Amino acid sequence: MTHDDREDRREAVATLLDSTWTLFDDAQKYLDPSYEGSAPPDFSQRVMELVPNAQQEAASLLERSTLAQIAGMVRTCDRCPLHATRRNAVPGEGKPNARLMVIGEGPGADEDASGRPFVGRAGKYLDAWLQAINLDRVNDVFIGNVVKCRPPENRDPYPEEAASCIPFLTRQIALVKPDAILCVGKVAAHHLLQRDDALRAMRSTVHRFAGIPVVVTYHPAAVLRNLQLRAPVWEDLKRVAQLIGVPVNRSGR
Ligand code: SF4
Question: Cβ distance 89 to 82 under 8 Å?
Fold first, then answer.
């Protein structure tokens, strides 16, 4: 529905409510000659409920969406400026009732080219992390991002871009209902958990998102650049394994 259509419909609904109220008020005057009538009520709130604006309608639609429908909405989304520079939106993928969700900040060049999350070198490294705690990317995990379209030059997503996009992720989490979330990288953790602490500080605690335990660790690409981060990542993976009740593979580190 266009903006003009919506305004026309609101006006029609407001007129109908006013007319109905006037009819009843007139009937009351007819039935009770001592009744002097009263000022018409303000129906504006009711009109907004009956004809919601585009944002309210989108939020309501998302609340009723399946994972497949979310993916379709993401692929055609133009809620934020990132839609203009993407090649492919990356809705996320994996097991619908996964035990673990892995959440990153947003697609990079490989993901933008393929439309799939965590492919390329960092993605393969993430697969190895999962194998180290006896999880299979396809059968045990759902992988997504805070923003579903690649920020140009791999810059961090702006707060307003993350705010526009995160309702998709929130709905995905609500549908998947994982036993735990592994949040990779500081930017993803900041947007998901609404914090701005250093990553090292966020690693020290198991956080909660919608009641689900969240472990924060380094992004696989960061670990590939600095292999000294492997030891803390292994500690974090063991914490995840404990949360979801899977054995760790001793050779994982
Ligand atoms: Fe839509 Fe998210 Fe892509 Fe922005 S990043 S256009 S909100 S799907």
Answer: no
The model's pLDDT over 28-44, given as tens digits with 9 standing for 90+, comes to 888 988 988 888 888 88
Could you report the per-residue pLDDT of 35-87, keeping only the tens digit for each? 888 888 888 888 888 877 777 778 889 999 999 999 999 999 999 999 999 99
Report the distance separating Cα 210 and Cα 232, nearest Å. Answer: 26
Query: E strands, 62-177, where?
Result: 93-94, 100-104, 141-145
Closest C-alpha to ligand 1, atom 4: 80
| Closest alpha carbon to 212 in 98, 95, 87 | 98
- The reported pTM is 0.82
- 65, 90, 147: which to mutate for ligand 1, most atoms within 8 A of CB? 147
Domain with CATH 3.40.470.10 in the chain: 55-244
- Is 203 in contact with 216 (CB distance < 8 Å)? yes
The arrangement of secondary structure in 55-244, i.e. its CATH architecture, is: 3-Layer(aba) Sandwich (3.40)
Using the 8-state DSSP alphabet, how is residue 147 labeled? S
> What is the pLDDT, as a whole number, of residue 252?
53
